[in-house]
DNA sequence: TGGTATCGATACTCAAGGTACCGAAATCAG
DNA sequence: CTGATTTCGGTACCTTGAGTATCGATACCA
């Protein structure tokens, strides 16, 4: 082996900029909305040149997806039994989407992905798949059923956000929790 | 009274162009996707000048909303009992969204509305409200509960469409019908 | 025949995503 | 200390698409 992966490549090292850009992204989206949160403005808010942003992320969509990954972090997946796990996961997603900027950014990339297959691939692979796999593992459910669960929870929350501009109120989140708990509770009861 | 509303104003009359433009909109969206279905291309496909389109609709979003209203038409609201009405309404929405172009166009405007308050207003007032009111009347449910129903059905279908690029398969539509029927079935059973 | 409003066509403005290029700065090897 | 290498900020640029403005031509009515 000629040289093990050199611990530091030659040239000027990159400055650690991810955190600053993520923070600038969320605050800009919160203040101006998704469409007006241009890459120029985000870079300016982060105190960074636009070219620096595009040196790290290939597109605005990819930046937002990474920003969302950072904002969501790993799924808690807490809960004694299966019903509790479904409820806590639903409430966790609802709470994250309600955080300032997160819901707008999520709805925004999702919207862009509708007519951009490349972005749809990024969204599906980098954002949805990790949580889907973790849920399949924790619930012992097949892929299609977990995908339906995600469609329900995320779809409802984003639709409310998109139609009203504000995150879903607690009472409705509780109704959502109740609905998915009832629907996905089988495997416990004898029926079906 | 000087003159009762004249049956025909002076000048060259407008040509009836709505139907042609609606058809061109759906087929263009179906062929090229929402983002590439520009107003120029839609107008060209309709054999009409772009200025003619903008003489009738103030924005691309308003055009799409009118196109969706035309595609959906009045809600059937059939069903012997309440559960059947919920099920048939859900399946009707799913079938409409699965029609070529309709789902893409719906997801597209919805996406645009996320960061465009004016369009959100149009979407809410012109598209959602009529069906919401009809449902409130048919179901005898309060506004908030019908809004939640719409969030669930439309949100789930659009999320699936947005993530996969294809309308939801029948099996999952049936799961959706089952879920909403169970959740909104109270008022019949003694509980709650 | 004249008045009026729409027609198609074209050219335009503006915003935003993304690319290209520049000299300046940071780091390492020698 | 010097040269090689790479990222830095900054700026100019390209492209696409929404929306506006304008113009001669056309269709209708009185």
UniProtKB/TrEMBL annotation, chains A, B:
InterPro entries tied to this protein: Homeodomain-like_sf (IPR009057), HTH-type_TetR-like_transc_reg (IPR050109), HTH_TetR (IPR001647), Tet_transcr_reg_TetR-rel_C_sf (IPR036271), TetR_C (IPR011075)
Pfam families: TetR_C_11, TetR_N
Segment forming the signal sequence: none
Residue stretches making up the HTH tetR-type domain: 15-75
DNA-binding residues: 38-57
Protein origin, superkingdom: Bacteria
Protein name (record): TetR/AcrR family transcriptional regulator
């Amino acid at each position: 082996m000629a040289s093990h992966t050199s611990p530091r490549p030659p040239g000027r090292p990159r400055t650690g900029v991810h955190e600053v850009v993520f923070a600038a992204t969320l605050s800009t989206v919160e203040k101006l909305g998704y469409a007006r949160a241009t890459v120029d403005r985000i870079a300016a808010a982060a105190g960074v040149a636009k070219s620096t942003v595009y040196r790290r992320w290939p597109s605005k969509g990819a930046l937002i997806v990474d920003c969302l990954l950072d904002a969501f972090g790993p799924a808690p997946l807490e809960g004694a039994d299966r019903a509790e796990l479904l409820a806590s996961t639903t409430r966790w997603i609802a709470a994250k989407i309600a955080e300032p900027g997160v819901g707008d950014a999520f709805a925004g990339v999702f919207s862009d992905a509708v007519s951009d297959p490349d972005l749809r691939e990024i969204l599906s692979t980098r954002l949805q798949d990790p949580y889907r796999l973790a849920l399949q593992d924790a619930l012992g459910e097949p892929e299609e059923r977990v995908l339906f669960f995600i469609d329900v929870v995320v779809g409802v929350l984003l639709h409310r956000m998109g139609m009203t501009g504000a995150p879903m109120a607690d009472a409705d989140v509780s109704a959502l929790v109740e609905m998915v708990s009832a629907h996905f509770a089988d495997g416990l009861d004898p029926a079906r």
